[in-house]
Amino acid sequence: MRAAVRIAAGAYAIAVYGFIFLPVVVLVLFSLQSTSFPIPPFTGPSLRWYQAVLSDARLTSALVNSLLVAVLFSLASASLGFLSAWGFARFALPGSALLRGLITLPLTVSYLIIGMGLLVLFNWAGVPKSLLAAGIGHVVINLPLCFAIIYSQMGDHQINIERAARDLGAAEWKVLLLITVPVMAPAIFAGFFLSMTFSWDEFVISFLLTRFETTLPVEIWNLLRSGLNPKTNAVGSLVFAVSIVLVVLFELTLLRRKPA
Amino acid sequence: MSVAGTNGRALPWALVTPALAWTLLFFVLPFIAMGLSSLTAHEGGAFTLTNYSQFFTDPSYWRAMVNSLEVTAVVTAISILLAYPFAWILAEQVPERWQRLALMLAVLPFWTSYVVRSYSWLLVLAQNGVINRALAGLGLVAEPLQLANTRFATVTGFVHFFVMLLTLTIFANLKQLSPSYRKAAADLGAGPVRIFLHVVLPLTLPGIMVGAFLTFVLCIGDYITPQILGGNNELVMPQLVMMQIGRRGDFPLASALSIILMAVVTVAYLACARWLKIERT
What we know:
Radius of gyration of chain A: 23 Å
Largest sheet of chain A: none
Number of helices of chain A: 11
Oligomer: heterodimer
Order of helices and strands of chain B: HHHHHHHHHHHH
Structural class of chain A: mainly alpha
Strand content of chain B: under 5%
Distance between the termini of chain A: 38 Å
Helix content of chain B: over 70%
Shape of chain B: globular
Number of strands of chain A: 0
Number of helices of chain B: 12
Number of strands of chain B: 0
Helix content of chain A: over 70%
Largest sheet of chain B: none
Strand content of chain A: under 5%
Shape of chain A: globular
């Protein structure tokens, strides 16, 4: 009976892993295809489609745009998130719970609706579509995440270090820069890296709010119109690789926080 | 525990104001703009309720909402049914030291680009894609099956995503469950089936509900998966919204449809919140 359960459980787990990994394996495998269609039979391995991606000016400039938007606006998300988390954790503010709720509210709304709202607002205000407009939207979705991560890591032991610094005569800005930021660095980086992964992958907001210069997911979307194509597989595999690096950085920074 | 700063009241507000201002300017204000826009006519901009009445009277709009709700319900149900045993296996059958690795592997594809993940299902499901080639190779089908551009494809793409999400929430819940509950039930003479139905399942229901709610919100608001995998045969609400913007530049109608979509999510949230509260007391 025990053994039967174990075998059934093992088979089930393998089936689910198979389902979860099937499209990813197919994507990466056929990015190495040497002929022009990403379908069986597999004719590779060949790196020609990666070469094609890296020599495609539209894709490489979109890749640079994506990285720039992700880095700059994740910096903004992490900074705003950190300052507000510190403010709420250290000082009693009237209506604190309500205001914290307001900052985290965008988490409950779909990206499509956030993008739509900004599109309507910018359209009325005469703000043209641009990477900046899309980046503003990225901060809207990532600020709540950064805030939640950093706020949850603000413990009591840091209060004592800050108090000690104040007792020794440090000004508030010195406490913030020399004590709190270094002590909270893992949480701040975790927020930053998580924000980077989401911003780097984000599609709908960038699709709605950019026009001429755009991000990689939007360019990939444009590539899809040309049908199945190993070049799309190659660029998709590259995006996946970057995301994995960011996630690993996120895990490492957040895990280091906890004493093992 | 709060510390009165030397600068009195100004400092704390200086800290929280940038984040609050950002949220008000770029989240609350756009929402108000969208609300106002939804009440204006596409031509001329006069005040009107036609954008909303159109939704309730035009059967093709209704159809999109029904499609959205059907797809979301099916995806949520299948995802829970697939994820629960998987989470249970990871929590109970996998040795402790391998659990973290097993879980990380299970959510790894989560981090492929969202657009790319839907596209890679297309490679699997296309006319001459991996599945059809495999079936033909085995001599099981004479003609390739129409798998892509169907509701089946949309559901498959969604389930792929949400099985990973639900596995995470249910796994967390199972790990929090103290083994003493199960021991107590066993000591009192309950068999494995009764222990599961009367002890484990009710105690993990909050985790299932949180996961189900997340699935609902993310699934009903998603444009990419239905657009890439479902094609244009059966439109869902986000596709309808994007169509108003892309083809017709009709922001007021798109705004009204977005607000209706948000209202549906809010109702689901209230239903879940109420249910969870009752469950806890």
